[in-house]
Amino acid sequence: MKKFAKIFWVILLLIVLLVTLTACGDDEENTTNTSSTNSTNNTTVEGDTMTEAQKFTSELANLSAEEVNANAEAQMAEPAEGDTIAIFHIEGYGDITVKFFEEVAPKACENFIIHAQEGYYNGLTFHRIIEEFMIQGGDPLGNGTGGESIWGEDFGEELSTTVLPYKGALCMASKGTGTNSIGSQFFIVQANYNEEMTQYLSYYGYSNLLNSYETYGGDLFDLALSYQYTTFGQVIDGLDVLDSIAAVETDSNDKPLQDVVISSIEITTYSK
After folding, report:
1. Could you give the C-alpha distances from 134 to 1, 10, 30, 128, 185, in angstroms and in order?
2. Smallest Cα–Cα separation from 261: which of 126, 70, 169?
3. 81 burial class (0-12, 13-18, 19+ CB within 10 angstroms)?
4. Which H, E and C letters describe the chain, residue by residue?
5. CATH number for 207
6. Largest interatomic CA distance in the chain
7. pTM, entire model
8. For 17-46, what is each residue's pLDDT tens digit?
9. For the purposes of burial, counting CB atoms within 10 Å of the CB of 119, is it exposed (0-12), middle (13-18) or buried (19 or more)?
10. Nearest in space to 71 (alpha carbons), one of 206, 186, 165
11. CA-based nearest residue to 262, from 114, 131, 142
């Protein structure tokens, strides 16, 4: 079932990317002459409107390969002494350590960190796991329908082309761009690079991403995550634990047959 689900999402993504790039085109004015408009998350472009997703993908496509590689290196770099980090203690599997991008996604980071400090995630599970895609948790109901932010109401995405959902990226789950539907749920990208990415990235105008995806992992569907979900952290230790969790047996709804439990998420400071 996982294989068929992955194929379905890849086909769907191809359609979305084709529509998005057709709408965006290769016009540099789409990225240089923009101004914010209203709460519908649209951006005015010389009399036309461009969605946040279209604006993001246009900006991403126009980055040079050198810029993409530099951003990726910074994303994967060791934290500075004293930086805030999180250590996921996962029953029977071990620890996963994550650094944060507080300047890029301040709301997502604050929400996650305070939830973790207050013990909100203690005892919750990774309720949805898809190998070669991601592991998702943070729902007190354990079925993907629960959770709330520290403010008691959901908030929106914080998108940036400087951080992308490579393997090990920590992202906030939501109902999609512009819906202001982020609460407490999160996921960690687990996908490894596959050769099909070379063909797809080149065909859809993202050859500038080839080297970084080959180096750090990710697949075609992960590219769609970049303009739909907030990337606010990166695994700096424990990718082997991530892979072990992703390999668990699941049912037809991608729920593990045996619970994968988060004992706690420890918020601390990085020290070499």
Report:
1. 15, 14, 32, 8, 13
2. 126
3. exposed
4. CHHHHHHHHHHHHHHHHHHHHHHHCCCCHHHHCCEECCCCCEEEECCEEEEHHHHHHHHHHHCCHHHHHHHHHHHHCCCCCCCEEEEEEECCCEEEEEEECCCCCHHHHHHHHHHHHCCCCCCCEEEEEECCCEEEECCCCCCCCCCCCCCCCCECCCCCCCCCCCCCEEEECCCCCCCCCECCCEEEECCCCCCHHHHHHHHCCCHHHHHHHHHHCCCHHHHHHCCCCCEEEEEEECHHHHHHHHCCCECCCCCECCCCEEEEEEEEECCC
5. 2.40.100.10
6. 56
7. 0.83
8. 544 443 333 333 332 232 222 333 333 334
9. exposed
10. 165
11. 142
Take residue 21 and report the two structure tokens written for it: 């790039």
Residues 87-123 pLDDT 10s: 999 999 999 999 999 999 999 999 999 999 999 999 9
For residue 269, the one-letter residue type is: T
Residue pointed to by tokens 């993202």: 206
Total domains present in the chain: 1
Q: Which domain holds residue 234?
A: 2-269
Q: Which of 65, 41, 39, 62 is nearest to 52 (CA)?
A: 41
